[in-house]
Amino acid sequence: MNANIKKNKTITDILSEEVDYDAKRKNRSRYTALGHPKKVKRILIHGATFVITTDSKNKLQVQANRSIYIVDGKIKEVFPVNKKSIPINKIDLIYDASKRSGIVVTPGFINAHAHPPMYLLRSSMTLDKGNVVDQVKKMAELEAKMNNQDFFLGAVGDFTEEQKYGITTTLSHYGVFDPVEEAAKLTRQRVINAISAVSNSHPKNSPEMVAKILAKRKNYFSQPAISIHYVHRASPDQLKKIKQLVKKYKVLLTLHSAENEEWVQQCVEKYGKRTVEALVDLGLANSNTILSHAVHFSDEEIKLVKKHKIGIVHLPTSNKLHKSGNFKYPLFVKYKADKQICLGTDSVISKNSLDLLSEALQARIMHNATHRVNYEDLFKMMTSQAANILKLEKLGKIMPGYKADLSFWKLRDRGFMPYNESNPVSLVGNMITHGGRNIRDLMIDGQFIISNRVHSLIDESNLMTALQESHTKLRKRLKK
Ligand SMILES: [Zn+2]
């Protein structure tokens, strides 16, 4: 940067220098293809200014000037740029992450709770009136009128927005499977497709229907899993069948839990105990179970979460918007269950934008008075810790053997600068406190999905038009 500040000019001169916008943006690409391979399989990320990742000892590292060599969707090597070079005949594509102040590379973020088809309902978030009970009811009325194309379009809108914010993996909790599968395939988003066996929006769903999908689980692009809207909505018989499916297919089961005290009391009425205690009795308390929200938990329940290794998805923005209450983060720390917490976006009905950095900031703000959640811990909650909780093998870190799901962030950006050069871990705090922004490039499974800020697979303008048209038609159907 210093090179830009010329001796005979003041900083004001430099900042106000007339720029030729087009000339400045010519040759801005960082991509160089070598040869003409049918499929780009070997990619060198050359000289990233910083790589931010947790290491093998689970410590957060900010590594300067690193190259990343990727072969067949996997990270093969990560090395200091001046210590080694990869022969040119072993590279199909070079991404120069060093020039113009360079790029910060992080693992692709992992969103542990979303309802992607609901993206079509963005305008129905009502912040000014009602509570979560009214809103869930209103949502169900609109959702009942949605068709498969609506679900698909919504999911494409959701996944592509997440991708722009650096999210490469999504746990989808929803009542339809195929439209989410198709959207995952189209956008290449890594999706855990948790189909609801007991659904609010899809009352006809059943464990039997889910069993048919799980039997064919190897045939899908997305990773099938099971969801339940709420435990109190399910019968003992349904829960017994679901327990057998989790055991038979070793899949994840995700449930909304204890989002408000009213729903906890409905669980007490039906199963005689509070949420987590009931899940223990029902044989559903184990590391395959992922509980979203988890706001109204007692001390006893949090101890059980720890004991049974249950995964927890913290959704602070959703909790605040719906006035659900405060997640008891300090108690999770007290009972050493905080390493079982990751973050999610929920749907656009419950959050401003589908971004995890802003969710990390919300978590920090929500608990600040009672417990300081460190930036390092928040970073892990979006990456390596989330991968552990969702049992995603070789995901969430930038290390040899890991899958090449990577987010590329421009360093010369307000989300990073200015940072403390002698303590570059300050980049992590900057990134979170800035509250979310778009990535420059995005890679999933060794394939660039976003390049030079443009989606490689989806025409975003056409997507916006299609979403708008479908939304308008849906509202008309509701009036009939
Ligand atoms: Zn939810």
Account of the 3D structure:
By secondary structure, the protein is an alpha/beta fold. The chain folds into two domains: 23-108 and 397-457, Urease, subunit C, domain 1 (Roll); 109-389, TIM Barrel (Alpha-Beta Barrel). Helix content is 35%, strand content 22%. Strands 1, 2, 3, 4, 5, 6, 15, 16, 17 and 18 form a ten-stranded mixed beta sheet that branches. The longest helix has 20 residues, at 460-479. The chain is globular. Residues 113, 115, 256, 292, 346 line the site of zinc ion (ZN).
> What do the pLDDT scores average to?
92
- N- and C-termini, Cα separation: 61 Å
In CATH, the topology of the largest domain is named TIM Barrel
Mind summarizing the main beta sheet? 10 strands, mixed
User: Any idea what the shape is?
Assistant: globular
Superfamily at the CATH H level of the largest domain?
Metal-dependent hydrolases
Characteristics of this structure?
Urease, subunit C, domain 1, 2 domains, 10-stranded mixed β-sheet, 17 helices, 18 strands, globular, binds zinc ion
Concise account of the structure shown:
The chain is α/β, with parallel strands linked by helices and 480 residues long.
Secondary structure layout:
Blueprint: H1 11-16, H2 21-25, E1 31-33, E2 42-54, E3 60-71, E4 74-80, E5 93-96, E6 103-107, E7 109-114, H3 132-144, H4 148-164, E8 167-174, H5 178-187, E9 190-198, H6 207-215, E10 223-230, H7 236-249, E11 253-257, H8 261-271, H9 275-281, E12 289-293, H10 299-307, E13 311-314, H11 316-321, H12 329-334, E14 341-343, H13 356-367, H14 375-382, H15 384-389, E15 406-410, H16 426-433, E16 441-444, E17 447-451, E18 454-455, H17 460-479
Parallel strand pairs: 2-5, 2-6, 7-8, 8-9, 9-10, 10-11, 11-12, 12-13, 13-14
Antiparallel strand pairs: 1-5, 2-3, 3-4, 6-15, 15-16, 16-17, 17-18
Bound molecules: zinc ion.
